[in-house]
C-alpha cells in the first residue's frame, strides 16, 4: 500500500497537474489560433461591454430568462458548480498536503461544510443523471460520453466522502479518491468538461453577437 | 511549623504524582490536540511505547529533536518540552507549524521506511 500511495500521490499527481495546466494552455492557444485562421472577422464585433453583460447575467442565479424558466435546474446547477469548485480547493486535507509538498497554503473550509458540499455534488450528479435519463429533450442530445463525464466528476466526491467518513476499506478509498481526482484533472481540458475554461468565451461571443450584430436586448 | 512541613511535603507528593501520571508515556494513546481551538481532525492514534518498540527507536531525539538556526543540533533532545513550545499554530520562516511538524516528522519517517501509516485517516482514526 505504501508504494501505491507514494506513486499516486507523487509522480502521478505531477502528471495530472501538469496535464491539467498545460492542457488548459494548449486548448486556449489552439482556440485563438483556430479563430484567427477560420473566422478572424469575429474580432470586428467582439465587445467587452456585451461580453461582460452576458457573463455577469449568466453567472448570477436567476439572472437570465432561461435560469428563471427552470428554477430547480438553476438552483441545482449553481449549488453543484459552487461546491464542485470550492470544496476541493479549500479542503483542509488538500491544503495540508500541498503545504507539505510545495510550501503553499491558504484559507480552508471547516470539514463539516466541505462534507455537505461533497453531498451537494453527489446529489447534483444524481439529479443530472436522472434528468438525462428521463427528460425527452435532454435524452435526445445525450450520448454515452455524457454519462462517462458525469461519472468522472462524481467519482472524486463519492470516494472522498467514503474515505473521509472511514466507513470501510479506508486505504482503498483514499487511493481511489486520488486516482479519481487525477482522472478528472486530466479530463477537464480534453473533454466537454473544458466548458470550465470555454464557457466564458462562449458567453462573450454570444453576448457580443447579440449586442453588436443583432442589436438585441438578449444575451 | 511541623504542620507546615507536612503540608509542603504533601503538596510536593501530590504534584509529583500528578506530574508523573500526566506525562506517563505508557499511558499515551493519542496525540494531545488541546492547543487547537477548533480541531477539525480526530486525535492521532499514537501509542508511544508500542510505537518505539515496533520501530526500534532507542534515542528520544529521533523524534524529539532540537533545531537551532535551522540546523539539527546533534545529541540534544527535547522530550522535556512540549512540541508546541517551538512549533506554533502557523508556520513562520523555516519553522513548520505544529501540524506540519508532526506530519513531516511522523509521515516523513514512515514514507522513508515504508512502514507505518501515511494516509490521513490511518492516524486520524474516527
Domain count of chain B: the total is 1
Strand % of chain A is under 5%
Quote the average pLDDT of chain B.
Answer: 87
Number of strands of chain B: 2
The radius of gyration computed from the alpha-carbon positions of chain A, rounded to a whole number of angstroms, is: 20 Å
For this structure, the CATH topology of chain A is Fumarate Reductase Cytochrome B subunit
Detailed description of the structure:
The complex is a heterodimer of chains A (219) and B (126). With 219 residues, chain A is mostly helical. Chain A contains eleven helices and no strands. Chain A has a single domain, classed as Transmembrane di-heme cytochromes, Chain C (Fumarate Reductase Cytochrome B subunit, Up-down Bundle), CATH 1.20.950.20. In chain A, helix 1 runs parallel beside helix 2. Chain A is globular. Chain B has 126 residues and is mainly alpha-helical. Chain B has one domain: Cytochrome C3 (Alpha-Beta Complex). In chain B, a hairpin with a 2-residue loop joins strand 1 and strand 2. Chains A and B meet through helix 1, helix 6, helix 9 and helix 10 of A and helix 4 and helix 5 of B.
List keywords for this structure.
heterodimer; A: mainly alpha; Fumarate Reductase Cytochrome B subunit; 11 helices; B: about 130 residues; mainly alpha
Describe the structure concisely.
The complex is a heterodimer of chains A (219) and B (126). Chain A has helices at residues 2-9, 11-38, 48-58, 65-69, 71-89, 92-102, 111-134, 136-139, 144-165, 170-190, 195-213. Chain A has one domain (2-213): Fumarate Reductase Cytochrome B subunit, CATH 1.20.950.20.
Fold topology:
The complex is a heterodimer of chains A (219) and B (126).
Chain A: H1 2-9, H2 11-38, H3 48-58, H4 65-69, H5 71-89, H6 92-102, H7 111-134, H8 136-139, H9 144-165, H10 170-190, H11 195-213
Helix pairs in contact in A: 1-2, 2-10, 3-11, 5-7, 7-9, 9-10
Chain B: H1 2-22, H2 48-55, E1 67-68, E2 71-72, H3 83-86, H4 98-113, H5 120-123
Antiparallel strand pairs in B: 1-2
